[in-house]
Amino acid sequence: MNEDSRLNEWFVPKFGSLKFRAFVGLLFLPYTGMCVSFTIIGAMLSSTIQWDRVAAIALIYGLALGVSAHAADNLGSKKNKPWGRYFSAMQLWLLIILSLAIAYSIGIYYIIFHVPLLVVVAALEGFFVFAYNFELFKGVLHNDLGFVFSWGALPVLGGYIMQTNGVGTLPIIMSVCAALVSYMHIRISRPYKELRRKRLNERRAKRLEVYLKLISLGTIAAAFAAIFLRVIF
Predict the structure, then answer these.
(1) How far apart are CA 164 and CA 45, in angstroms?
(2) 0.85 exceeded by the pTM?
(3) What is the DSSP code string of 174-199?
(4) Cα 95 off chain centre by
(5) Rounded CA gap, 15 and 208, in Å?
(6) Exposure letters 203-230 (e unless 16+ CB within 10 A, then b)
(7) Distance separating alpha carbons of residues 188 and 193, to the nearest angstrom
(8) Domains located in the chain, CATH noted
(9) Is residue 161 helix, strand or coil?
(10) pLDDT at 61
(11) What pLDDT digit, counting tens, does each position of 168-220 carry?
């Protein structure tokens, strides 16, 4: 199976032009949805909810991870990533710069006027966008620990800080839970991609795909459930 086989992934639409389908594939929407869901779950831990901040932090992470980090991964990875072949380096850089500019513009507004502590999360996540995806420092941060910290634990804390400008025991515990969920995801995702790429043991690949769907869609469902509970109670 060649690299084009990733266009047949379950999260890639079967309609539209090749470039449109590749762009949707580049976004890894179910996995980006996991990260955004972590921010929402973190926000729902606050005693009071300011919904504009929930939307803002979700949009920030949707842009920073869904667009910027995934575009950067296709540019910076030493492995041959399939999605980058459909876009020029200039197009990928434009995606990185524009989405980060919008995300940080929103973040800076809230940092200045409402939640100054968010600057810590913003600085760390900005660092990981480049250090992880461009494999800086000889790739020392491009590993499972870097992944689960930046796109599992930190989003939960970011969501909570966006509401409270503080950190507590419960959000820290929940951030550890999110890190464990992210760890399960990345540990399953790597062999799954390899099996699909080489067309090896397709039965096992299908089984791993089911696990990935359960983890990603289950996390998204948990975020909706958390919102529902906060609305009715």
Answers:
(1) 10
(2) yes
(3) HHHHHHHHHHHHHHHHHHHHHHHHHT
(4) 15
(5) 25
(6) eebeebbeebeebbeebbebbeebbeeb
(7) 9
(8) 3-232 (1.10.600)
(9) helix
(10) 98
(11) 999 999 999 999 999 999 999 999 988 887 877 889 999 999 999 999 999 99
